[in-house]
Amino acid sequence: MKPVSIHQGKGPLVLGFPHGGTYVPKAIASKMNQRGQGLDDTDWHIAQLYAGLDFEGDNS
Questions:
Q1: What's the rounded Cα separation, in Å, for the pair 36 and 18?
Q2: Among candidate residues 22, 24, 19, the one with its CA nearest the CA of residue 4
Q3: What are the Cα distances from residue 39, in Å, to 7, 35, 42, 45, 49?
Q4: What is the distance between the terminal CA atoms of the chain, rounded to a whole angstrom?
Q5: How far is Cα 36 from Cα 25, in angstroms, rounded to an integer?
Q6: How far apart are alpha carbons 16 and 50 in whole angstroms?
Q7: Residues 1-59: pLDDT tens digits?
Q8: Which of 4, 32, 38, 41 minimizes the number of CB atoms within 10 Å of its CB?
Q9: Where are the domains of the chain?
């Protein structure tokens, strides 16, 4: 997983949003309790909410 993607365009645009919590590195997951490892506090729809805001290749 690549947690950050940076693309230079022609105008100012900064998108910042919380991650959905679907990616937890193994080193961190191993220290979490069972409920945490089950990703109970995950926003499963955050990726859909921000879908379409990926301007990769669109530098207009």
A1: 17
A2: 19
A3: 30, 7, 5, 13, 19
A4: 27
A5: 12
A6: 10
A7: 566 777 778 887 766 666 777 888 999 999 999 998 998 888 888 878 877 765 554 44
A8: 4
A9: 21-52
